[in-house]
C-alpha cells in the first residue's frame, strides 16, 4: 500500500513538473513578427498585432494574423487550415471578389501559416477570433504540439514506474 501511494505521488509530481516546464517555455516559443508602426520597424509578439498594422514577412516566419499582401511573392504552408495545402503560392496585387473562396485568395496569407520561401509586405485584415484559423478550428494556435506530447510522455513514464512498483510489491 505504501508503494502504491509513493507511485501515485511520483506520477502526480511528474505531470505537474512537466506542465510547469511547458508554461515556462511558452514565453520563449511565442511567435514574434516584424511590424511597421509610425515609420518604425518593431518586433512584436503575435498577440500584439492589430488590424491595419503593416507586417513584414520572410522565410521562416509564422504569420500572426490574416494579412493581405501589398507587395512581394511568398510560398506558404497552410497545413493548419487544410493538411493538403503544404506549399501555396501567394502574390500581391491579385484582384478578387468578396465571394472568392479562401483557397483561391492568392493575395491573402492566413494566420498560423508558415512562410516557406520569399519576402512580402502586407496589411493585417483580421486578428484573433476574426481570423480564418479561428473560424475553422475554434482557436488560433501557433504551437504545433501545444505541449500535449510532453504531457503524454510524462504520464507514460509515471505509469511505467507505477506498474513496475506494483510488480515488485507482488514478488
Overview of the structural elements:
- The protein is an alpha+beta fold.
- The protein is built from three helices and seven strands.
- It has helices at residues 2-29, 132-137, 148-170, and strands at 32-37, 40-45, 54-58, 66-77, 88-91, 108-109, 114-126.
- Strands 1, 2, 3, 4, 5, 6 and 7 form a seven-stranded antiparallel β-sheet that branches.
- The model is unreliable at 141-148 (pLDDT under 50).
Describe the secondary structure blueprint for this structure.
Elements: H1 2-29, E1 32-37, E2 40-45, E3 54-58, E4 66-77, E5 88-91, E6 108-109, E7 114-126, H2 132-137, H3 148-170
Antiparallel strand pairs: 1-2, 1-3, 3-7, 4-5, 4-6, 4-7
What descriptors fit this protein?
alpha+beta; 7-stranded antiparallel β-sheet; 3 helices; 7 strands; 33% helix
Show unreliable segments: 141-148
CA-based gyration radius: 22 Å
By DSSP (H or I, 4+ residues per run), the number of helices equals 3
Could you say which structural class the secondary elements and strand pairing correspond to?
alpha+beta
Specify the biggest β-sheet.
7 strands, antiparallel
Please provide the ordered H/E string of secondary-structure elements: HEEEEEEEHH
- Tell me what portion of residues adopts beta-strand conformation: 25-35%
Q: Report how far apart the termini are.
A: 14 Å
Shape: elongated
- Overall pLDDT confidence: 78
Task: Report a brief summary of the structure.
The protein is of the alpha+beta class.
Amino acid at each position: 500500500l505504501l508503494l502504491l501511494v509513493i507511485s501515485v505521488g511520483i506520477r502526480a509530481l511528474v505531470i505537474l513538473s512537466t506542465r510547469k516546464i511547458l508554461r515556462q517555455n511558452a514565453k520563449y516559443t511565442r511567435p514574434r513578427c516584424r511590424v511597421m508602426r509610425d515609420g518604425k520597424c518593431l518586433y512584436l509578439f503575435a498577440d500584439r498585432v492589430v488590424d491595419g498594422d503593416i507586417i513584414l514577412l520572410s522565410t521562416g516566419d509564422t504569420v500572426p494574423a490574416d494579412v493581405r499582401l501589398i507587395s512581394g511573392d511568398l510560398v506558404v504552408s497552410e497545413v493548419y487550415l487544410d493538411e493538403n495545402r503544404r506549399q501555396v503560392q501567394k502574390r500581391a496585387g491579385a484582384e478578387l471578389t468578396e465571394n472568392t473562396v479562401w483557397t483561391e485568395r492568392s493575395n491573402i496569407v492566413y494566420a498560423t501559416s508558415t512562410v516557406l520561401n520569399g519576402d512580402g509586405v502586407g496589411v493585417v485584415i483580421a486578428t484573433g477570433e476574426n481570423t480564418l484559423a479561428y473560424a475553422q478550428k475554434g482557436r488560433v494556435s501557433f504551437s504545433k504540439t501545444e505541449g500535449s506530447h510532453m504531457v503524454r510522455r510524462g504520464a507514460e513514464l509515471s505509469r511505467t514506474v507505477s506498474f513496475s512498483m506494483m510488480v515488485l510489491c507482488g514478488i
